[in-house]
Amino acid sequence: xxxxxxxxxxxxxxxxxxxxxxxxxxxxxxxxxxxxxxxxxxxxxxxxxxxxxxxxxxxxxxxxxxxxxxxxxxxxxxxxxxxxxxxxxxxxxxxxxxxxxxxxxxxxxxxxxxxxxxxxxxxxxxxxxxxxxxxxxxxxxxxxxxxxxxxxxxxxxxxxxxxxxxxxxxxxxxxxxxxxxxxxxxxxxxxxxxxxxxxxxxxxxxxxxxxxxxxxxxxxxxxxxxxxxxxxxxxxxxxxxxxxxxxxxxxxxxxxxxxxxxxxxxxxxxxxxxxxxxxxxxxxxxxxxxxxxxxxxxxxxxxxxxxxxxxxxxxxxxxxxxxxxxxxxxxxxxxxxxxxxxxxxxxxxxxxxxxxxxxxxxxxx
Amino acid sequence: xxxxxxxxxxxxxxxxxxxxxxxxxxxxxxxxxxxxxxxxxxxxxxxxxxxxxxxxxxxxxxxxxxxxxxxxxxxxxxxxxxxxxxxxxxxxxxxxxxxxxxxxxxxxxxxxxxxxxxxxxxxxxxxxxxxxxxxxxxxxxxxxxxxxxxxxxxxxxxxxxxxxxxxxxxxxxxxxxxxxxxxxxxxxxxxxxxxxxxxxxxxxxxxxxxxxxxxxxxxxxxxxxxxxxxxxxxxxxxxxxxxxxxxxxxxxxxxxxxxxxxxxxxxxxxxxxxx
Lengths: 365, 275
What we know:
The complex is a heterodimer.
Chain A: E1 4-13, E2 16-26, E3 31-35, H1 42-50, E4 57-62, E5 65-66, E6 77-80, H2 92-102, H3 107-121, H4 136-148, E7 154-158, H5 166-183, E8 186-191, H6 194-200, E9 203-208, E10 211-216, H7 218-223, H8 228-233, E11 240-249, E12 252-257, E13 260-265, E14 277-282, E15 287-289, E16 297-309, E17 314-319, E18 325-330, E19 341-346, E20 352-355, E21 361-364
Parallel strand pairs in A: 3-8, 3-9, 6-7, 7-8
Antiparallel strand pairs in A: 1-2, 1-4, 4-5, 9-10, 11-12, 11-14, 12-13, 14-20, 15-19, 16-17, 16-19, 17-18, 20-21
Helix pairs in contact in A: 2-3, 2-4, 3-4
Chain B: H1 3-34, H2 56-65, H3 67-98, H4 104-116, H5 119-132, H6 139-163, H7 167-176, H8 180-191, H9 193-208, H10 212-217, H11 224-234, H12 239-269
């Protein structure tokens, strides 16, 4: 077990910069999820720890050792691949044992470890089978087993759940998290699925275009996004954004745009003040159908573009006459149809303000 | 099944039967011819069954043609040449498929040139080279020349086969601690087994069918096809005996193909059809 540290790491593929000045410290035993859209550099970041790519600048440390120039096999890490990468002609037992054999471990020790791991993962029955005779879920377990059996300094997982069906994915998500807590091995986990990131990570590192946008525990990343990208990426359905003019008057803030005016209480304003133009973000769960006397900010009126019925709740896509778009959260029995005009309001204290120029977070209002 | 697809199936069968008939037609002809009573006056005509089945023609052809000598040459050459060229193809294909090194592209295209340039174009300088090495009329002349001709295709073939392996498989092996050598033999070779078997069968067929090189470089070490040519030169009028000789020469390839039929087809289809 060990800390994993990225120190100003840059990786270029020819003209393309996949990772830019990336710094991140992953504590011993921590479960960190790298999350971001495709092309954000998360997989590159993972492959750099594994040694499957060579870095262009900076330093990567596993434990106290700088591993920049070490071959993958000398880094003492194990990786779970998206497609599992099980050796097709070997049995499950041989798949688990291969890495240990390559390290010249005594036969008895290999046998002990393979059986112990198989028991942990409940794949003892499958040891003599070949990968093609396994279901997707079973293959996934064997892939995990191949990492566990090595007892490495760190686990690297590259979207290991993306080939499973939705139900199995949720179940396995919990199991991986539980296993990691049991063995306590430092884990770096890559996914594009923000629900996976939020549910599994001790900390979540949100990435975009090769840059680390924010690192924090799931709650912080959700409640205090550092910028517009993080705010929009984390949360489903995602936050609604509108660019508005801001004006401060006697301790209150007026946000306006094309006939729409919102008055909000000012709190925790940055000392530098609020710029003239801001991006206002609001999450769907804080955007609700209008009720008189509920203390909402509004009312805002708009046309219903779509209705998403999820059974337990409903999300309504609304565009205002000034073409601002909001996602409104409603009870499943709300009588709303596409094309209708609805009135809705925003919960006080739920607005996120971002600098329109830098897209950095300013405050909540 | 609806009518449209039934018509389609019928058409497919028609095509397959037609192609098979075209392929089988001369073989059946030669088989029938080989069973006619031997002698100049007994030339077979068309597909008429022979008046008597003269199985003894095969024994006669074998003995009079001296095929045991030709077969010895072909077997010795194939026994050395096939493993050697398959091994070199595996090693070369592995390097081109998985390693990046300076000049790898240029060297690869150089090998491809070997596929494109016909042996006939280089045969004269080759003759002087072989003579200078003192290898004229030896097994080595055939073995070395055939291997060098065969690895051009073999490397191309094995490179494609290894490149069809998922990249993650190689990466998993690297992380698991396998050296390049172990990765090749423990992971990639078992993965590419059908392709390797197919290459082996194709290489064997090429080696067995070697005619031109044997004709140019050997006198006392003729291969089976070259031996057949000399045999048929001597017995131009005895069609039954020449036919029997031709069947004898073709037989080993048929046997090898029948044994490896399934793997051969699997190897041919690797990559053509999504598994």
